[in-house]
């Protein structure tokens, strides 16, 4: 029986909702702006290197009529959760960051059809369920197993001025006292207490391109703790 996990709840085991068929999942649309210039062949393109959200419609059925007693709980689970992790059991090692965007009339659906759609609005990418921290104490290579660059969170333990090299990227860290967290998703630097440390970094926030990424540094560094945030189109 196909099911999905959303907001840490299993649709079938917790609510008796199963997936009728694997949903059709489209690749995200890349943001490219085009403009036509008189006298010029083709169009002028500006590629933002960013992607639109995707929509996943999941056709669902119910195990039995007992679901009628759980309607309020189901609404709270699906609609009240806001943006949460969505994992389909046919691909348990990858997840979406999703939110339910449709209004579902459970009572009418169950009485007349015994099936209903759940529509998720998702961020453009699939992410690795296993996002374990990678620890580095010396220079080396990190292989991005995804199909698109990732935006890691890197906790740099060290002191003083540090140059962190990731492929062709150079991140300058200034006057580090014990450690600094570089969060490429939030585009922010901070410590465990949430103190803003953006003034201690120069350069672009690091990314890991698909494939191998050479990591090295100069300065006093004891280790890196890297949350890689692998993702797929």
Automatic annotation (TrEMBL):
Question: By its UniProt entry, which InterPro entries does this protein fall under?
Answer: Dit_BPSPP_N, Siphovirus-type_tail_N
Name-wise, this protein is: Putative phage tail component
Question: Siphovirus-type tail component RIFT-related domain: from which residue to which, for each copy?
Answer: 33-122
